Amino acid sequence: MNNDPIIFALSNPNPEISPQNALDAGAKIVATGRSDYSNQVNNALVFPYILRALLDTKGNLITENMLVAVAYTIAGLITEKELSENFVIPRLNDPRLLYTIMQAVKDSNSNNSSEM
Residue 115: helix, strand or coil by DSSP? Predict the structure, then answer.
């Protein structure tokens, strides 16, 4: 591995490499779909909010641009002060998710037409 690698082992229920093995092998940051480790990446982080935003904006498509906009929005929620090896993605109960995802969906809804 390169210096300070970042590992996203997201397969569930068994990730490609266990988070602990990745850390033991020298990973600086490990994200996983597992709830028993920090940096949990879970579709529940985004899809309830996207669906709510679509309902509120009367949208009927989930587009690639929308998903990219939402990904950048989620990544942007972590401030420099909060950012650490164990905190690179918001937690599922982060109250900022609904509003920011709603705004990203609203903005992308008016700029995109490719269907997913």
Answer: strand
Report pLDDT for 1.
64
Instruction: Give the whole-angstrom CA distance, residue 93 versus residue 110.
Output: 28
Hey, where are the domains in the chain? 1-41, 43-116
Residue 79 · residue 27 · CB < 8 Å: no
Please say if the pLDDT value at position 112 is more than 60: no
The four Cα atoms 69, 75, 76, 79 give a dihedral, to 10 degrees, of 180
**In this predicted structure, what is the pLDDT of residue 61?**
86
DSSP for 25-63, written as a single string: TT-SEEEES-TTSSSB--GGGTHHHHHHHHHHHT----B
